[in-house]
Amino acid sequence: MIGLVPNFFALLSALGSQQSPAPAAQTTDTGQCPATRDIRSEPYTDPDIPSPFGDGYQYTVTANGKTWMGQTAGTDDDYLDKKYELQPEQIHERDGRIYCDYGGKTVNENGVTSTPYLRLSTPK
Fold first, then answer.
1. In angstroms, rounded to a whole number, what is the distance separating the alpha carbons of residues 121 and 69?
2. pTM
């Protein structure tokens, strides 16, 4: 029985040390991301995904001389609603595109929990 304890801890240590590789050129300087107040949203349905899974919002903004776009799906929530307190959290570049990831406050209403996540990107 004692022999299992060290193996158990070794397994946990090995699992804990495995991390996903970071995206190329990742940084936390989100000053290049569009300001949340400038982003516009409109209801959107992805034609390739059946409803309600393809229903969500399309987000667009022009900032810093670039057009940024993003979409959410499978949600009735517009993450620009003030209750979500959406803000940029991370920016990185990959394959000639810039990505800004936004997050905010988790909201629980009527037993439904919504955690906002939005990714805006520039075209190549």
1. 6
2. 0.74
